[in-house]
Amino acid sequence: MRRYRWHRIVTGLVFVAAVASVTGVTASRQRPTAGAPYRLVDGWPQALASVPMGWVSWVDVDSIGLMYVFRRCPVQCSNGTHPAGNDPAASMLLFDSTGKYLREWEPKSGGQAKEAHGLHIDRNGFIWTTDVQLHVVRKYRADGTLLMTLGKIGVPGETPETFNQPTNVLVAPDDSIFVTDGYGNQRVVKFNKDGKFIRTWGRKGAGPGEFRIPHGIAQDRSGRLIVADRCGLGATGCTDGRVQMFDGDGKYLTQWIPPGGAFAPQAVAVDAADRLYIDDTLNAKIWILDAKSARVLETIDGAGGHGMSVSSTGDDIYLTGSAAGTRRYSRTRR
To answer: Which of 57, 77, 15 is nearest to 264 (CA)?
Structure first.
């Protein structure tokens, strides 16, 4: 097994040019290669014909195995993958642990999303979402009651009270809230459990602690924050994607890029054994690393997506993106 270490940025670091130009986010249903550690579960989830999966942005699973699927559009958004004015509002679909469709989860108190993006279910069962068109992060109870809104609805900005197209949210074990404010702003914002602003860090760039598009966020067992800093996915290729690590106050620690350099990390997750999972769209691959040493443990080929969730054991990986809907990869070797 080859070993790869976390690479600290040094003067003169040059990213290897992308081997292919990426003009949008797509998700392949290609099977993992023979002998792979995971298999794609066919016929999962069991969506009804009357409830199309459409364009799915993110997915997460709660402590009892209920799966929440954050759907951007029921079939296809009329404006590419982003809702136009005449498109229906985003929705949340709920499935049981076997993949059986249960119902559409209904947020209350006017908390419906306009453009579904990030989704996170915290250790207390609260449901957190990001809405890139309305520029807000919302917290709900499992019954759909809206408990908190961070940001100002429909107002983009770069202040302690505003976001500009936030991509994802994470609630740490101490209940601190971290938001990747990634499309319009290139920063991470930290709040306390009550939503009071604490600090922010990051700006546009490729230097230590700078971002192109901070798109996903997770935390390892030592408390380090892991940010998927996605490349621009534009016509110029994808030469600056990386995963960055910070302490809980935003101090830059290190970064990781895979062998070859070209990389589009969309989402990151950490399981109970401190394994780090990285969803890499450009290479249609999930990288599985030891979070502490960054040694590559396994990879799943043909599995790139947009949003990702991983079971605490690491035996199941849930992936979303584009018209491929939601997929589940289950471990074949225990």
So the answer is: 15
Three-state secondary structure readout of the chain: CCCCCCECCCCCCCCCCCCCCCCCCCCCCCCCCCCCCEEECCCCCECCCCCCCCEEEEEEECCCCCEEEEEEECCCCCECCECCCCCCCCEEEEECCCCEEEEEECCCCCCCCCCEEEEEECCCCCEEEEECCCCEEEEECCCCCEEEEECECCECCCCCCCCCCCCEEEECCCCCEEEEECCCCCEEEEECCCCCEEEEECCECCCCCCECEEEEEEECCCCCEEEEEECCCECCECCCCEEEEECCCCCEEEEECCCCCCCCEEEEEECCCCEEEEEECCCCEEEEEECCCCCEEEEEECCCCCEEEECCCCCEEEEECHHHCEEEEEECCC
Distance separating alpha carbons of residues 148 and 128, to the nearest angstrom: 9
Strand partners, 178: 170, 190
pLDDT tens digits, 53-106: 889 999 999 999 999 999 999 988 998 889 998 998 899 999 999 999 999 998
Of 15-24, 81-90, 207-216, 223-232, the one with minimum mean pLDDT is 15-24
CA 136/CA 82 separation, integer angstroms:
16
> Does 1 score more than 50 pLDDT?
no
User: Which CATH number fits the domain 38-331, given the four candidates 2.120.10.30, 3.20.20.70, 3.40.50.2300, 3.30.70.260?
Assistant: 2.120.10.30
**In angstroms, rounded to a whole number, what is the distance separating the alpha carbons of residues 310 and 329?**
10
159: which 2 tokens? 């202040």
> Strand pairing of 326-331 and 67-73?
unpaired
pTM to 2 decimal places: 0.89
